[in-house]
Amino acid sequence: MENAGYIALTRLSGLQREMQVVAHNIANTATAGFRREGVVFSEFVVGAERHEPSLSMALGNTRHTYQMQGGLSQTGGSFDMAIEGEGFFQLETAQGPRLTRAGMFTPNQAGDLVNMDGHFVLDIGGAPIFVPPDAGNISLARDGTLSADGVPFAQMGIVRPVDPVTISREAGTLFVVDGEVEPIEAPMVLQGFIEESNVDPIIELARMIDVQRAYERGMSFFESEDERIKNVVQTLGR
Q1: Please, what is the end-to-end C-alpha distance for the chain in angstroms?
Q2: 138 sits in which H/E element
Q3: N or C: which end of the chain has fewer CB within 10 A?
Q4: Alpha-carbon Rg of the chain, whole angstroms?
């Protein structure tokens, strides 16, 4: 295969991954706390032999998560929480600490505050939050302090990665940090709200159409190039 064919294949491969990302975004339009993803294309340049031009290929191997704030939806639930502005809730999973913006929590049978998947919600000190069994009126202060009948019993751990580039999506609404995290000095946490997905379905549908058209153009070029090579081989073989 000639260089033009390899270049076309790398472009098609990247567009295919981008289409998968767009489809995943659309499927999570209604997922609370979901963050929209995109594909970052990079140029890979290979130096050729002397007196020959270099080879440049487009690679779409890197995903980027857009961290802009999603809309806030009021639920009225005592343990539904949303962060306004910067920061993440901390969770303890079987694979270690994880971060999320999805604040739909509830006490389990043992009284531990967990998310919808049963992961423990951590306090500002990194310990699981325990809700007293006799807790009456649950209130949440703007700084994340939880109180039962006016008596504080825990403070939500609202953190951010020290280095923003160390955070990456693990699955769904969970993020993993390959580095240190630090508490937000003045968090803004709302009770009775959840943060909606930051995916705009109209934008994503338009993007899907653009990617599909680009893929079709790439396939057309690849097929034309393949036909050209066949014709050259047939001509030289006569």
Answers
A1: 21
A2: strand 138-140
A3: C
A4: 25
DSSP string over 15-36? HHHHHHHHHHHHHTTT-TT---
SS3 at position 27 = helix
Q: Count of residues for the chain?
A: 238
Question: Which pLDDT tens digit goes with each residue over 142-173?
Answer: 999 999 999 999 999 999 999 988 888 888 89
Asked if residue 161 lies in contact with residue 187, where contact means CB atoms within 8 angstroms, the answer is no
Position 85, amino acid: G
Cα–Cα distance between 102 and 91 in angstroms, integer?
A: 11
User: CB under 8 Å to 151, separation ≥6 — which residues?
Assistant: none
C-beta of residue 107 within 8 angstroms of C-beta of residue 134: no
Q: 167 and 161 in contact (C-beta within 8 Å)?
A: yes
Tell me the C-alpha distance between 35 and 12, whole Å: 25
Angular region, 71: left φ>0, alpha ψ -120 to 50, beta rest = beta
Whether pLDDT at 94 is above 60: yes
